[in-house]
Amino acid sequence: MLLQMPRVIGRLKRTPLPERLRSFHLAPRHLSLLAYLLFDGPLRVGELAERLDVAPTTVSLMVGDLSRQGVLDRRPDPADRRRTIVTITEDALTRGAIERWLANGAVAWRKAFEPLTPAERALFVRTMLAYERESLAEDAADGGAPTG
């Protein structure tokens, strides 16, 4: 795993953006945010912050930036006007490009998990979470920034 993970992560970082998305200022940090919105549907800023494990102000800044670029739409939460609901834009070309960009990873995960039993899938997810947790603990103990 120590040899495989850097190669896999490096390959994922080099995945090219679809032509339609190249004019937007998308960074790797936007990938998870867009994935949550695509696969889980519209979410409140607070929900996105929880899922991304970042401060709500960080998500608000990302959402504001992507909204100005036309990637995301924001609207008040009808249940609580103080909250904002975030969705991927309704623009068909942009939304389609985001769907295609994220679908590659989803298809790859589906194929990788297909031969596994539900218990094996759960073990893999727990193992990845444990790896992440331990990596962050080591970084904190060293006083440095997380390196993954």
Keywords:
single chain, 148 residues, mainly alpha, three-stranded antiparallel beta sheet
Largest sheet: 3 strands, antiparallel
- What strand order characterises the main sheet? 1-3-2
Molecular shape: globular
Mean pLDDT reading: 86
Percent helix range: 55-70%
Relative strand content? 5-15%
Order of helices and strands: HHEHHEEHH
Distance between the termini: 13 Å
**Class from helix and strand fractions:** mainly alpha
- List the total number of helices: 6
Low-confidence stretches: none
Element layout with pairings:
Layout lengths: L3 H10 L14 H13 L2 E2 H8 L3 H13 L3 E6 L2 E9 L3 H22 L4 H25 L6
Can you characterise this structure?
This protein has helices at residues 4-13, 28-40, 45-52, 56-68, 92-113, 118-142, and strands spanning 43-44, 72-77, 80-88. With 148 residues, it is mainly alpha-helical. The protein has a 3-stranded antiparallel β-sheet with strand order 1-3-2. A hairpin with a 2-residue loop joins strand 2 (72-77) and strand 3 (80-88). The model has no long low-confidence stretch (mean pLDDT 86).
